[in-house]
Amino acid sequence: MNKLFADLLSSGSLGRQNNQGPKIQKRRGVEIKSAREVEIMKKASRIVATVLREINEMVEPGQTTDDLDKFAESRIREMGAVPSFKGYHGFPASICSSINNEVVHGIPSHKKVIKTGDLLKVDTGAYFDGYHGDSCITICVGEVSKEAEKLSMVAQQALMAGLAQIKPKNTLLDIAGAIEDVVISNGFSVVEDYTGHGVGRNLHEEPSVFNFRTTELPNIELRSGMTLAVEPILNAGNKACKTLRDGWTVITKDGSWSAQWEHTILVTSDGCEILTDRGM
């Protein structure tokens, strides 16, 4: 799950108690994780990776997004964790399930039936022993259009291009530039309303990990021990989005389709380690 990080900071909501989900801790700026914290985050992230791998394998036409949500919550709890998303700022489910022109934060529903040709984004998080893991995949359901397949593939390529820039002394703009170049060169647009973020004791921490070149957000230098959720979000058409009346589901304004891939990573001494790697 991602929010426009600046909105969370300005609202002060990162310091409030969550009535249903994990407690939202007081923010402390960019955090460098200790070896103990990293080991816990690896466990949380492996739970997320396991759930997403299993969902990717089980998805088929005729299922509902509510079916996937129930499965995800059950599996997260079976593995000793708590769903990060459920109750987070009032979000009602354990996954975000966004289909086709839905960009992010789609609410699972028993009325939303998955069909052949759909481009399904599944985003989830797990809270284990005080720390979160967070990841998103895009699933091509059955036989999809060539454009939809390319959109998902380019989003994944953009993610990996961004991760390749992660090492100490590089900056957030190095990540953003690599992502943006892949997206633009393939004729798609970067969604600018939503960004990646730090992750750890809170689902959303500083810094905001943006996917486009900008001077509007702090461009910090990367340091070993930082844990980040990097998540390019691409639209096939215009970057403009709008939020539906449910207060969560974001769609493209022009009706074009959208794709997203996300990993939680650890900045290491010579690069990064993907904590939510589904190959495990």
Description:
With 280 residues, this protein is of the alpha+beta class. It has a single domain (5-10, 33-274), classed as Creatine Amidinohydrolase (Alpha-Beta Complex). Helix content is 28%, strand content 23%. It contains five helices and 15 strands. The strands form four sheets. It has a five-stranded antiparallel beta sheet. Strands 1, 2, 4 and 5 form a four-stranded antiparallel beta sheet that branches. A three-stranded antiparallel beta sheet has the order 3-12-11, with no helix packed on it. Strand 7 and strand 8 form a beta hairpin. The longest helix has 24 residues, at 35-58. The protein is globular and about 45 Å long. It starts with a helix and ends in a 6-residue tail after the last strand. Residues 5-19 have low confidence and may be disordered.
Q: What is the element layout, followed by pairings?
A:
Blueprint: H1 5-11, H2 35-58, H3 65-78, E1 82-83, E2 95-99, E3 102-104, E4 119-128, E5 131-140, H4 146-163, H5 172-185, E6 189-190, E7 196-198, E8 205-209, E9 227-230, E10 233-235, E11 241-243, E12 250-252, E13 258-260, E14 263-267, E15 272-274
Antiparallel strand pairs: 1-4, 2-4, 3-12, 4-5, 6-10, 7-8, 7-9, 9-14, 10-13, 11-12, 14-15
Helix pairs in contact: 2-3, 4-5
Q: Say what the CATH topology is.
A: Creatine Amidinohydrolase
Q: What integer value in Å does the Rg equal?
A: 17 Å
CATH class: Alpha Beta
Secondary-structure element pattern, one letter each: HHHEEEEEHHEEEEEEEEEE
Low-confidence stretches: 5-19
Give the CATH architecture.
Alpha-Beta Complex
Strand tally, please? 15
Q: Classify the helix fraction into a percent range.
A: 25-40%
Q: Looking at the structure, what is the overall shape?
A: globular
| Number of helical elements | 5
Whole-number tally of structural domains? 1
Strand content: 15-25%
Rounded to the nearest angstrom, the distance between the terminal CA atoms is 22 Å
Major sheet description: 5 strands, antiparallel
- In CATH, what is the homologous superfamily? Creatinase/methionine aminopeptidase superfamily
- Structure class: alpha+beta
Task: Report mean pLDDT, rounded to a whole number.
Answer: 93
Largest sheet, spatial ordering of strands: 8-7-9-14-15
